[in-house]
Every structure is written in structure tokens, then in C-alpha cells.
Automatic annotation (TrEMBL):
Name this protein carries in UniProt: Ornithine cyclodeaminase
One Pfam entry name: OCD_Mu_crystall
Database matches in SUPFAM superfamilies: NAD(P)-binding Rossmann-fold domains (SSF51735)
Annotated InterPro entries: NAD(P)-bd_dom_sf (IPR036291), ODC_Mu_crystall (IPR003462), ODC_N (IPR023401)
Organism name: Paraglaciecola hydrolytica
Amino acid sequence: MNSCNKLKSPNVPFLGVSHLLDLLADVGVENFLLGLAEYIQQDFMRWDEFDKSPRYASHSEEGVIELMPTSDGNNFSFKYVNGHPKNTLKGLQTVTAFGVLADVDSGYPLLISEMTVLTALRTAATSALVAKYLAPANSSVLALIGNGAQSEFQALAFKALLGITQVKLFDIDRSASIKCYENLKDKGLDVEICLSAQEAIEGAHIITTCTADKCNATILTDEMVANTVHINAIGGDCPGKTELDKNLLLRGDVFVEYEPQTRIEGDIQQLDASSFVTEIHRVISGLAPGRTVAQQLTIFDGVGFAVEDFSALRFVRDLMQQSPHQQKLDLLANPKDPRNLFGLLANSQKTSLRQAS
């Protein structure tokens, strides 16, 4: 029997926002990020076991709705996620998500989870995990270009996994930088708000770009960036949405999660299909080099991939089994005779009549 045991009841474990917040409070955010990164690394090291495909995406003028499925043969997962940059003008989140982990043998769901907060955590954990292999040795300064919902998670993940001590912030909306500063100022980091992207990246060892506009933008130009840094480009994640100068991509060594998906959605959509990139699981498994010399520009063109969501769901399910807080959903029909599903209706009507009398 696989690690995710068969359900013992029709009630499906459910991880809501409040339960996830309880888990984070019990474990600590940085410890959570460390554990999550470990699970992602484990799954990247068994990459060939997973079904892989570019995510299904339904695009509209205002945003995108996506489904992200994968399976390792024992368990199946998918995530529903949207991306609507203008939502903040309506007081709504740019990104919302939920996910399911299921047992392949029975098809029964093993966990249903919120994934709005969890996606932010898994994105940050993935970014920092990749940087362990690609960033300059002893990196201590992180520049965050784009200070929206993802920014604090990124800073804490880089602190936990790489020992970052200084964070330099820039956003065209200064209120976003102020929000990020207030959230991070008591987290053991030296935080500074900068007046421009150029000011933010000066002296930085790692540059994270995470902007939300659904357009081909140039957040970093070729001239701005030295050959000694690592760029964590995670804002370009759908067709027609980019952050990096094409010449910057041509100059650097580019690493991706799953090349067929990143060719569609990532910054490398600007490049010819013949341009060389390295899938990061090869570096993690020791099959390809990461950063090999100090004078090397490395770029992670991260768009988010289904295996990372699988890892996140697997991680929180294991945590939930140790948690005193358990939530269940009455989601699955459970007739005494599995062939007599209709009998549930008759039994329900009988119960209603007895209660009425």
C-alpha cells in the first residue's frame, strides 16, 4: 500500500485557510518553508516517475484560469488556479487556488486543500531551493522587484534556505513596498525601500522579479545586470507576459522547470525553440551543472509546475496527520451497497418523513 493510505471513512480530509494558518503557527513559517522545499527536492529527484504536460489554460481578456495535473502512479493531484491582475482594483486576490490529492488505485480523494496561501509558500520554497544550486556562494542580499502578495514569502524562503540577511524592495506602487517593509521589518532582516529597480539591484546577489501585469514588460534590461548574479524571474507565467530583456536571456544560463510549459508561458517565449535551457531537476539530481564559476549569470525562468503542487499537497497531508486540528468534508457518497447509489435517496426520504412525524 502506498504512503497515502486508503480512506477509512467517506469524510475527506480538508485543509482550509484557517487550518493552514494553524499549521504555520505550530511549525513556524520558516520551518514550514524548509520542510516544503525538502519535499519538492525529493520529487524533483524522481522526476521521471511523474506524468507531465503543460497545464490547461483558459485565457480571457482579464486573466487566465488553469488546471495543473500530475501523477506519480500512486497518487494523482491537480490544482485549480486563476491569475487576474486587475482583481486588486476590485478588492480581490490576483491569484486564488485549491487542490486535490487522490489515490490512483481507488480514485478516491485523499485531501482537498486551499492553495492560495499554499501556492505562495510553494512558489517561494521552489525559488529558494533552485537558488541553492544557482546563486553565488554566500549570497546575503536579495532584491525584490514587485512587492505584491508573493514578496514576503520569497524573502522568508531565501532567509531560511540561503541565509539572506538584507532585502531591497522596489515596486512602482510605493504602498506595496511599504506593506512589504512593515511585514518583514521584525523578521530578522535588514529591509530597505528603494526608489528604482536599478537602486534595488545594486549590490544584490539574487534578484527576484515578481510583477503581475499581463503584458510583455522589461523589468530588467541587459545593461542593468552584472554577470555575477542569479535572477529568479517568476512573474512571467502566461503567454504574452514577460519580465526580462531578450538579450539578458541570451547572455545568461537559463534554467526552467518543465521546458514544454515554460516555452509557452515563461520569459523564454521570446526565444527561438532551439535556444538552450536546462530543466532544474537535472541540476538537483546531479545530471547537469548549475553555477560553476563566480562570473556567471544564472536565470531561473520559473512559471510554477504541477509537480511542485503535488509536493505541497503531500507535505501538508503529512503535517495534518500529526496535527490536533482535523477538518473533514462530507464529500463522498457511502452507500452500504456500493451498487445501490440510488438507495441513498430513499433512505434520506425515510429519514425526513420520520423527522416530520
